[in-house]
């Protein structure tokens, strides 16, 4: 409690302090203005004489510059302007100075500074006050109902002018009339729109204390609270201040009325919008924009009213909230009655898709213009609208009937017959005098089918009403309209417009036609046959068009809709969809039919969800429904998945920018910068790199190149992507869903591109190829596989995609033989598919598959003769199996061939149930963690002619086999021969490379070679064959140095004690002399610190450093060359064609002999010249 009491005391003391500060500020303001007026009154009595101005600068240049400076006045220029006033003679320029001050674009913060300038000018120049008053009269002379062009500048100008009067520069007698007339005209002319409220509000804020004695409501409350008085200004008489106060309160009263009206209008508009949302389900963009404008203007007006109320110490008007019942409780009919004209117009616009459609259905020609004597027939008044409560009860009953599917039989339904038209025999009874009229009618009916636009059908209506309006002709017109061809649905809107145009004067046409259509519709509904669908569609579309023109009652159209929903199957579904497409939007947006239409649409979608019918009918129902009830854009946006920024950036790189020119290196650099140590980032990046179906098909090659380059830096990425690709292909074979066909083709292409970039071994590709034609494939005509339907040719497309992408690289070695074997099985699978009985003349085998197989064989094996029949392919498979089994029996004779033939035939390849231990032996231990995504079934897939183990670095060609048990090494003579040949080849290559390198990089000999006799005698003292320096340095120079060092060591050991060996080291050189023809060798001991020995050692060390440098450069060059080759291979797809830019610069070829100069030979102008 004590703490609360202390807080209250602190708040009270703070409020008192703020109030005293505000009072002190007001007193300072009044004191400052009083002192300023007193100073001006004293100073103007002692203005300087003319002799004072003659001493100042009167140059035009400086005075003109001073006037320009005043026009661009800011608070920072005050000191310089005051200094210029003391040095310049402005007597002749005082009018320009006054105009410049009035025209200056000032801010509220510049008022105090410009007032000081005006005070100084007024104290020095007697003409300043009259001139500035004249300038203000031009600005503030406001006529009645005149608009202010620049309210922001006028807001500052009014305060400036009022401060000039209150400061004493302008006397009240001179300045108040202009200010009073301006405020009076401004307030009286702005009581409706209040566009100038900001100007008057600024006057009240800054000048209200001086002119009207205004005190804010907060200060009044504080003064009453603390029992203190607020100082007031005595500058103006109380009666004048009261006049200004009354004028401002009058303006505030009009502002409050405006606020109340806007608030009421805003509430009415919001109520109308809610009702439109109830009836229609959406608002037009115009209404949304108008509501936003109304909200903004109301908020702005409310803010200004609150500020006025605080300054004038008045209370805010009470804004009453709408207490009317919610719109959901109001019926649609009440809405139609209470809606304003503007809302009604907006709602009518929703009935039509565009303005052209509204004009077509609503703006009909008036026949009375062409036929003045034609009198409109008396129309029957429309029945009164039903009671809303009863209408809702009826709608609920009808919805229950539709849901239960129990049609209510009307009287006479059993005897319904198709519409019967009168026979043409009546034409014989027509008098001879009317035979010409018959010819005109026949011509009119013939040309009626050509009326396919608005102008032509309106002309036909005028022609019929003018020349052919007889009872007999009307019947024939109705017959012609009703019997329109069932395929000419485009004529129905124009025929309906013709009927609607004639209806005010010839209502029989519309009545008879509607009766015929109603009777024919009931006949087709009761007959329930599955023929004549085009005639049924024509009937319902004709009814829909007449409904939009108002010729066919909306209640009857809804009854047709209800009858179709009660028999919602087969042709009735199509009739329902056509009826909705024609007039569903019109019925939904009409106030008297909205509720029933909405209920019927809900029942239709409910029946559609329970309908086990053809997908075509489901699509038709959805299209018709969403054409009547469009999908809300906000609902679609709510389903948009929000991803983190990093995920969006990765998707932008791979799915948008990939494939752009020059973007590959940028994408690779950005991917390398990712935090691959973060499991979440790495997992999402790998998933995006695996999703090849989200990349444009030509860019899959680029994506594989990015993966190959990225694997050099993040090795696990390649393993995980390859595993995911294989798993996806396997999943697509196990779940052959047609909507994923594009994805399956993209992943097959991706796998082939990964092989091209050496991310996958050929054995993996062949495993996938064999899986495509063997996994869950039945080669028995009587047994149909669920995973490989007879009409499903997607597996052949996958195989063609893989072979077209990477098949050209299976051209040598083991891969070539594997492809040859595989093409035999592929042709057998293709011919078996082609021979299935599902393919007939009506349903032929796809030509694209035939051409794809032929083009693939022609590309990969041009000389291969394709099999033409299934029997040829079967015989080829059998012969191939026998050949392979013979080779297998020779390579592994210990296997029981009977068991192999029984369990491991080369027919459909089946998955084996392997034990866990065997599976672990087949998979390398180091790659288990990286291959967890690869399923067990995929890891066990084996194909004939290849091992289940991954490729290794061994070169055993005959080890490429498949057995039932785990692979075992078989010893055979061929292995020994192969290893011997391999060792011999490797040795020859090494020797050749060493010889070639030695020839290229052998340094020139700088010393004479030491004879081998002398070299052999110079060995180490310990008896080893190694020299001191020769073995470490090498070369002839090293050998010579080694001889010298060895001799030195021998001599030192033989002649000196152990302690002296290191005291006087010497280097022995072999001195070769020639005596006669025989060389003589003598030992020469040279001290090790002599110049000769030192130079020898320095040269040897320099040679060694040079060799190391050359070796490093060579290794760097090789490494760089390999990297450039890989970059060329990886970027070959995106590399632009190289053009020879120097081709055009090359000079034209000229024959060496030159062209004979005719003028030189025969003499001519050059000779004369």
Automatic annotation (TrEMBL):
First-listed, main subcellular location of the protein, grouped into a coarse class: cytoplasm
Biased composition (Basic and acidic residues): 401-420
Coiled-coil stretches: 266-296, 863-890
Lineage: superkingdom: Eukaryota
Keyword Repeat in annotation: yes
MIF4G domain ranges (all copies): 60-256, 442-631, 648-863
Entry annotated with the keyword Thylakoid: no
Cellular location(s): Cytoplasm, Perinuclear region
Record-given protein name: Regulator of nonsense transcripts 2
Organism of origin: Daphnia longispina
Phylogenetic placement of the source organism: Eukaryota, Metazoa, Ecdysozoa, Arthropoda, Crustacea
Gene name in the database record: EOG090X0143
């Amino acid at each position: 409690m004590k703490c609360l009491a202390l807080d209250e005391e602190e708040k009270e003391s703070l409020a008192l302090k703020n109030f005293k500060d505000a009072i002190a500020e007001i007193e300072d303001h009044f004191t400052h203005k009083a002192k300023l007026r007193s100073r001006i009154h004293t100073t103007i009595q002692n203005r300087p004489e003319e002799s004072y101005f003659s001493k100042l600068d009167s140059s035009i240049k400086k005075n003109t510059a001073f006037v320009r400076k005043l026009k661009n006045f800011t608070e920072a220029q005050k000191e310089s302007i005051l200094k210029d006033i003391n040095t310049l003679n402005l007597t002749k320029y005082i009018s320009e100075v006054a105009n410049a001050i009035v025209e200056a674009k000032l801010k509220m913060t510049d008022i105090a500074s410009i007032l000081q300038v005006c005070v100084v000018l007024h104290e020095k120049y007697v003409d300043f006050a009259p001139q500035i008053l004249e300038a203000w009269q031009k600005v503030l002379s406001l006529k009645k109902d005149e608009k202010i062009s620049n309210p922001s500048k006028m807001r500052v100008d009014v305060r400036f002018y009022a401060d000039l009067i209150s400061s004493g520069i302008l006397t009240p007698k001179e300045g108040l009339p202009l200010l009073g007339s301006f405020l009076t005209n401004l307030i009286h002319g702005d009581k409706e729109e209040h566009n100038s409220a900001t100007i008057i509000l600024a006057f009240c804020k800054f000048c209200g204390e001086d002119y009207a004695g205004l005190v804010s409501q907060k200060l009044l409350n504080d003064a009453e609270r603390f029992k203190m008085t607020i100082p007031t200004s005595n500058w103006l008489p109380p009666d004048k201040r009261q006049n200004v106060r009354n004028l401002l309160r009058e303006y505030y009263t009009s502002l409050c009325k405006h606020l109340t009206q806007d608030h009421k209008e805003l509430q009415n508009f919001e109520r109308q919008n809610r009702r439109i949302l109830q009836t229609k389900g959406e608002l037009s963009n115009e209404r949304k924009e108008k509501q936003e404008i109304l909200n903004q203007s109301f908020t702005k007006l409310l803010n200004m009213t609150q500020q006025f109320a605080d300054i004038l110490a008045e209370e805010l008007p009470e804004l009453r909230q709408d207490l009317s019942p919610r719109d959901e409780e109001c019926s649609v009919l009440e809405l139609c009655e209470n809606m304003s004209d503007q809302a009604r117009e907006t709602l009518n616009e929703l009935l039509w898709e565009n303005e052209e459609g509204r004009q077509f259905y609503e703006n009909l020609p008036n026949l009375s213009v062409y036929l003045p004597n034609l009198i409109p027939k008396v129309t029957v008044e429309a029945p009164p609208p039903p009671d809303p409560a009863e209408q809702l009860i009826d709608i609920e009953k009808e919805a229950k009937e539709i849901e239960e599917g129990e049609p209510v039989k009307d009287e006479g339904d059993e005897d319904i017959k198709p519409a019967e038209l009168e026979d043409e025999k009546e034409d014989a009874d027509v008098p001879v005098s009317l035979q010409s009229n018959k010819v005109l009618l026949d011509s009119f009916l013939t040309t009626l089918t050509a009326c396919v636009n608005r102008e032509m059908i309106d002309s036909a209506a005028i022609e019929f009403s003018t020349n052919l309006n007889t009872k007999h002709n009307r019947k024939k017109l109705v017959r012609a309209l009703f019997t329109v061809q069932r395929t000419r649905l485009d004529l129905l809107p124009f025929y309906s417009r013709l009927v609607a145009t004639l209806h005010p004067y010839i209502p029989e046409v519309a009545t008879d036609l509607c009766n015929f259509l109603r009777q024919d519709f009931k006949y087709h509904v009761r007959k329930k046959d599955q023929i004549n669908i085009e005639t049924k569609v024509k009937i319902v579309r004709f009814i829909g068009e007449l409904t939009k023109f108002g010729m066919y009652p909306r209640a009857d159209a809804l009854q047709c809709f209800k009858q179709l929903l009660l028999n919602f199957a087969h042709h009735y579904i199509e009739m329902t969809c056509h009826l909705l497409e024609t007039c569903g939007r019109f019925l939904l947006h009409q106030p008297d039919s909205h509720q029933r239409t909405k209920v019927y649409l809900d029942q239709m979608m409910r029946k559609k969800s329970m309908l086990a019918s053809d997908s075509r009918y489901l699509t038709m129902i959805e299209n018709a429904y969403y054409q009547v009830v469009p999908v809300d854009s906000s609902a679609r946006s709510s389903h948009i998945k929000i991803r983190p920024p990093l995920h969006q950036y990765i998707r932008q790189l791979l799915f948008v920018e990939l494939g752009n020119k020059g973007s590959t290196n940028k994408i690779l650099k950005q991917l390398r910068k990712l935090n691959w140590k973060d499991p979440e980032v790495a997992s999402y990046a790998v998933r995006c790199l695996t999703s090849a179906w989200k990349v444009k098909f030509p860019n899959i090659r680029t994506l594989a190149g990015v993966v190959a380059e990225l694997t050099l830096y993040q090795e696990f990425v390649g393993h995980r992507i390859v595993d995911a690709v294989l798993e996806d292909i396997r999943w697509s074979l196990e779940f052959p869903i047609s909507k994923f066909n594009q994805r399956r083709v993209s992943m097959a292409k991706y796998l082939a591109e990964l092989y091209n970039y050496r991310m996958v071994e050929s054995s993996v590709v062949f495993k996938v190829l064999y899986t495509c034609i063997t996994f869950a494939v039945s080669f028995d005509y009587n047994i149909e596989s669920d995973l490989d339907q007879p009409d499903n040719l997607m597996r052949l497309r996958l195989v063609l995609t893989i072979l077209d992408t990477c098949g050209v690289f299976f051209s040598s070695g083991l891969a070539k033989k594997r492809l040859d074997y595989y093409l035999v099985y592929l042709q057998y699978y293709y011919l078996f598919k082609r021979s299935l009985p599902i393919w007939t003349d009506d349903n032929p085998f796809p030509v694209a598959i035939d051409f794809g197989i032929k083009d693939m064989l022609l590309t990969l094996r041009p000389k291969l003769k394709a099999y033409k029949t299934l029997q040829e392919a079967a015989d080829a498979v059998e012969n191939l199996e026998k050949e392979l089994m013979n080779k297998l029996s020779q390579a592994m004779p210990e296997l029981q061939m009977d068991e192999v033939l029984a369990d491991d035939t080369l027919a459909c390849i089946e998955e084996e149930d392997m034990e866990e231990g065997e599976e672990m032996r087949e998979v390398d231990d180091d790659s288990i963690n990286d291959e967890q995504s690869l399923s067990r079934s995929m890891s066990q897939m084996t194909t004939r002619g290849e091992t289940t183990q991954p490729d290794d670095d061994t070169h055993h060609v005959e080890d490429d086999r498949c057995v039932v048990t785990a692979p075992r090494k078989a010893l055979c003579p061929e292995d020994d021969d192969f290893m011997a040949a391999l060792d011999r080849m490797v040795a020859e290559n090494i020797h050749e490379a060493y010889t070639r390198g030695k020839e290229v990089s052998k340094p020139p000999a700088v010393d004479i070679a030491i004879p081998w006799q002398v070299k052999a005698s110079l060995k180490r003292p310990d008896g080893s064959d190694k020299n001191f320096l020769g073995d470490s340095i090498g070369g002839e120079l090293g050998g010579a140095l080694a001889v010298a060092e060895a001799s030195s060591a021998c001599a030192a050991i033989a002649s000196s004690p152990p302690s002296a060996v290191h005291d006087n080291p010497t280097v022995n050189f072999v001195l070769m002399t020639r005596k006669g023809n025989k060389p003589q060798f003598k030992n020469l001991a040279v001290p090790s610190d002599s110049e000769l020995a030192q130079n020898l050692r320095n040269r040897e060390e320099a040679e060694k450093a040079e060799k190391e440098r050359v070796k490093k450069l060579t290794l760097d060059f090789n490494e760089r060359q390999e990297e450039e080759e890989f970059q060329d291979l990886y970027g070959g797809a995106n590399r632009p064609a190289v053009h020879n830019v120097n081709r055009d610069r090359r000079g034209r070829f000229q024959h060496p002999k030159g062209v004979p100069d005719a003028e030189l030979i025969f003499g001519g102008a050059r000779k004369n010249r």
